[in-house]
Specification:
Layout (H helix, E strand, L loop, with lengths): L1 H21 L18 H4 L3 E2 L2 E2 L26 E6 L4 E6 L11 H11 L6 E3 L21 E3 H11 L2 H12 L2 H14 L22 H11 L3 H7 L3 E7 L5 E7 L16 E10 L3 E9 L5 E9 L2 H12 L4
Antiparallel strand pairs: 1-2, 3-4, 3-11, 5-6, 7-8, 9-10, 10-11
Helix pairs in contact: 3-4, 3-5, 3-7, 4-5, 5-6
Length: 326
């Protein structure tokens, strides 16, 4: 009797073990399959489309088997490069796009994005003593302690002239301090999936621990150009306004774009229109440029160059890169 019981147990165990190894999965993973586990979508916050979970990074540009490698475009003078088809969610060209590098004034794209999301254009900003930036070569719009500008005026100074004192003005108004604003910048970057960057100031003057990647810069810029105010400002060639000093007296401010495409000093390839972008230059960062362009059908593209050796090569290599659009 005991032998029959033991034999039956061994047969049952064998069947169970063999079943675990041989049973076919009836519901293999597929992006297009419905899974009842997503029935908690409303409480869990999972995005759904027709009963399907939205794939992570579904609306982001990623490398695929059509992405051109560094040999396809002459970018020998630049350290890190990327060209993205925004609507096609495709990386057209990439060269060391995940290197962490100083971004210089490309930082101001993130500054503008955070400011636009946390303020109104007519808010009045008052300059503190911290707008007196003394670093050699730093671009300034000439703010003095006690001067007042609207947020809209400050954003124009920030993005068109690349005024570092305007960056401090904005940061202290929105974040309470430069440090507090830098925390907001990093929080926003991480929310976009830009986890390879770190910001410690709002202007991009050289500082330890302040860096981006070209891919993260694409993520940040692609988010910024969704804002009509941002896009309008980066497309502006000339800007003229009046603000006030501490005594209420008017001060005139005039500036023009640093973007050589908008100035007519450089020509984009045929069929490509430059909408605008942001330049940046420091000794540590070299020459940097991020652009929004459109093809003949109006489709948007984002291109980023970090660490180019000289400005003349920056635009030569950017134009070669834009030649791969279409």
């Amino acid at each position: 009797m005991k032998k029959r019981i033991i034999s039956a147990l061994l047969m049952t165990t064998a069947l169970l073990l063999s079943g675990c190894g041989a049973k076919q999965v009836q519901d293999p993973y597929s992006l297009d399959s419905f899974n009842s586990a997503f029935s908690m979508k409303e409480s869990g916050g999972v995005k759904m489309t027709g009963g399907r979970a939205e794939a992570f990074a579904a609306d982001l540009c990623v490398r695929d088997d059509t992405t051109l490698d560094s040999a396809a475009v002459d970018t020998a003078q630049s350290t890190s490069v990327i060209l993205c088809d925004v609507n096609g969610n495709r990386v057209i060209y990439a060269k060391d796009e995940n290197l962490q590098l100083p971004p210089a004034s490309l930082t101001k794209v993130m500054t503008a994005l955070v400011a636009l999301e946390n303020s109104q254009p007519d808010e009045v900003l008052t300059a503190s003593e911290n707008v007196r930036i003394t670093e050699s070569g730093a671009t300034l719009c000439g703010l003095e302690p006690g001067d007042t500008m609207t947020m809209d005026q400050a954003l124009h100074a920030l993005l068109i002239q690349s005024a570092n004192d305007a960056a401090v003005l904005i940061a202290e108004h929105v974040g309470g301090s430069v440090e507090g604003f830098a925390e907001m910048m990093n929080q926003k970057a991480h929310s976009l999936g830009a986890t390879g960057c770190n910001f410690v100031n709002p202007h991009g003057l050289t500082a330890d621990g302040h860096y981006v990647t070209a891919y993260d810069m694409y993520l940040i810029f692609a988010e910024a150009i969704k804002n009509d105010t941002f896009t309008q400002i980066i497309h502006t060639e000339q800007y003229d306004t009046v603000y006030h000093n501490a005594a209420g007296e008017t001060k005139r401010y005039e500036t023009s774009t640093t973007n050589q495409y908008l100035k007519g000093e450089q020509q984009a390839p045929e069929g490509v229109t430059v909408i605008g972008g942001k330049t940046g230059t420091t000794n540590a960062a070299g020459n940097c440029l991020v652009l929004m362009t459109q093809d003949a059908a109006g489709n948007p593209y984002v291109s980023v160059i970090l660490g180019c050796s000289e400005r003349q090569f920056l635009y030569q290599e950017m134009s070669a890169l834009l030649g791969k659009i279409g």
